[in-house]
């Protein structure tokens, strides 16, 4: 216990030092929101990877693979391919044509107020989903680690929330970025060590490892079963499994390219070339990380066993339990501290992107029509927003507790991003005719469709047997109206369709007239926001 | 500070100036080249990636066939996604280096054309 606390405190102290250093350097809006646009390619690569290698992936995906084998690995594959879309279609135009948020690019040639208001709303919705996922992960860890230490779940969550507010309120984007970089390095080294330990357990013989993974024994409904964890179909079963898998794929391929906390990172680099290189850095790191998650997940299934995981904290704790089985309590402490640090860093990243979107898009540009009444007002509003978001997520976390798999929760956030943000971002950069009516229709229909289908799907609706525990119960006790867990296969086309129909109904010559300017800016970087000079 | 951040825009940076660059031979050439790489690359990636959920969703028996010891086709296909993703990234970096050169020439020429006016 004390070892875990020591590792965790060391991380907290170093991040506070980073925050102090960043606070001294941060003056002005560009410094606060975009780290002065001076982050280099490898740094941003680590930061993007850090944002993406969240508790959802380290705890959630390892847990999915540990309990459901190959089907869980599909989440890992999605994590890498998501960045191909960002690399080819989104990163560079966004960096060239925007200032702090996705809303900037949309507002460029469309009527700013309705478009920014909708963009801010969808950003806040997406971030809320991610945030819930992180907080549930934190809750699960705390229940494993701190039982008997005198620190209650509520106290731990309040502590995490306050730290995250400190990073964001005082250090801004610069501090958040560096916290993310440090954490990404910690998490990667931790994953490498665990991977080596797992393979070592099988005498570094891959054949032995995979043959163990092909015969995992556990209890299902009271009966002992032996399953091949390399085989597909343990999670996604007929009749709807195949459609659900495709739907999940849509969330990855389009959702990450619409995820606000990933996209804001491209405003922290000096130019589009750096943005591009940073995506490739991120792809190297994320790819290696996610390949290793399959070793950890299958390792947890074979070494720890699904039975033990289910009775000792559940799916989200497979990784930490694996560490304990392989190298004892000290290593469990280390891995848990790293997982905790991950949550802290990702929550800070989510908070700053929510604060940026609210302050820049909604407060300054929607309510006050783009003019700051006093210098520094936007930054002040962002700080207040960060405080509010922090307080809100503390409350939600205390209300929720460790229930659902955090990997699935985060994927639902991605489905919303894929259906609402992505179609509108893509069309605004590539379609001359696109206009305000299209953007507002696309954002609102995409948002409503994704959320509606999630709520009507088996994650929220279902009839539980009367002996189910309170945390495992479905929110709505009725048969699910929509058979798929992932709404993407329907909600993404709906988002696109609404954006197209809205565009064709509306008529906005001024938006078409400015398309040439957007195209030249997006493709050449002419007139793009430059790095701050010292 | 905010004023210093802005790139120096072309003089008289009005709608006409942007339209002129957008209509220029060099810019259209750049766009055509980008399209020629990005569109096929994205389509290939799209088809290759979605082949994974489609094949394991609709042909699970076939995909479960073991090819290397106990390792089956599905797992190898999933692993190959990582390699394909990296290869696309590498190819794009190479192609983009050419786009960067063309962009630089284009901007220089555009600035020159303006100076001459």
Instruction: Give a count of the beta strands of chain A, DSSP E runs of length 2 or more.
Output: 2
Query: CATH homologous superfamily name of chain A?
Result: Sodium/glucose cotransporter
> What's the number of structural domains of chain A?
1
| Poorly predicted sequence stretches spanning 5 or more consecutive residues of chain A | none
Mean pLDDT metric of chain A: 83
Global morphology of chain B: elongated
Tally of alpha and pi helices of chain A? 20
Beta strand % of chain B: under 5%
Strand order of the largest sheet of chain B: 1-2
**Mean pLDDT, all residues of chain B:** 82
Kindly report how far apart the N and C termini of chain A lie: 45 Å
Rounded Rg of chain A:
23 Å
* Major β-sheet annotation of chain B: 2 strands, antiparallel
**How big is the Rg of chain B?**
23 Å
Pair with the biggest interface:
A-B, 64 and 57 residues
Low-confidence segments of chain B, given as residue ranges, are: 1-8
> Structural class of the helix and strand makeup of chain A?
mainly alpha
Secondary-structure-based class of chain B equals mainly alpha
Q: How helical, in percent, are the residues of chain B?
A: over 70%
Number of β-strand runs of chain B: 2
Helix proportion of chain A: over 70%
